[in-house]
């Protein structure tokens, strides 16, 4: 699933391609991606509107229109966007935004988990799904984060994946943050010290910023706009590195399941008693 760096990369690419374009029509080969309302109401809400801005909130893409509507797009497991100079359907393209200049923005999703919703701009952050999101690592306060986790018996990995506690991290970056802080991912959150909580936030910011600079991590199916690959996967320390030597101590990286997710860690650097 695309995480914060990947979503920001997609948003930045979309900004260069579609801001200022007027939506002439919306077509669907599968309308099940549209949630809460039917496709015709979705179409009616955005046709003849112009895209004036594109932002993200955690893993959600927010497409702002000049009619005070906002399209919420979530890529889920492997959603992608493609632009074309004229209307056409690529393999696994299911939603097509046709612009007044006849160019198109197509949403592509082979696994069909992605979603689209419509919000009035005034209600955007007052309604689900955005109202329940915690701050992203760049904006969260260490003390607020620490108070949220200090009594939890859940693993720190589960905490980092919980978008109501800290948003934007997913499986890749949770593993990388745990490695950078030398914390075993299965450690109970209530055993995390304030010092460790501060390290978690600091390294989350650092790792995410580095990944954003490199266009995210192209692992499995992720690519940005028009199939452009990221490069941060070349700099991952533990995620996907099972049986490779740890970059710090040369111990073999192990893989286990924590919080229901495949989890990579160094058994020497990330011992439970490191702090």
UniProtKB/TrEMBL annotation:
InterPro entries: FPG_cat (IPR012319), FPG_Glyclase (IPR020629), FPG_N (IPR035937), H2TH_FPG (IPR015886), Ribosomal_uS13-like_H2TH (IPR010979), Znf_DNA_glyclase/AP_lyase (IPR000214), Znf_FPG/IleRS (IPR010663). It comes from the Bacteria. Monomer. This is DNA glycosylase. The lineage of its organism: Bacteria, Bacillati, Mycoplasmatota, Mycoplasmoidales, Metamycoplasmataceae. It comes from Mesomycoplasma hyopneumoniae (strain 168) (Mycoplasma hyopneumoniae). The gene is fpg. It catalyses: 2'-deoxyribonucleotide-(2'-deoxyribose 5'-phosphate)-2'-deoxyribonucleotide-DNA = a 3'-end 2'-deoxyribonucleotide-(2,3-dehydro-2,3-deoxyribose 5'-phosphate)-DNA + a 5'-end 5'-phospho-2'-deoxyribonucleoside-DNA + H(+); Hydrolysis of DNA containing ring-opened 7-methylguanine residues, releasing 2,6-diamino-4-hydroxy-5-(N-methyl)formamidopyrimidine. Keywords: DNA damage, DNA repair, DNA-binding, Glycosidase, Hydrolase, Lyase, Metal-binding, Multifunctional enzyme, Zinc, Zinc-finger. Its cofactor is Zn(2+). Residues 237-271 form the FPG-type domain. GO terms for biological process: base-excision repair. Gene3D superfamilies: 1.10.8.50, MutM-like, N-terminal. Belongs to the FPG family. Residues 2-114 form the Formamidopyrimidine-DNA glycosylase catalytic domain. GO terms for molecular function: 8-oxo-7,8-dihydroguanine DNA N-glycosylase activity; class I DNA-(apurinic or apyrimidinic site) endonuclease activity; damaged DNA binding; double-stranded DNA binding; zinc ion binding. Pfam families: Fapy_DNA_glyco, H2TH, zf-FPG_IleRS.
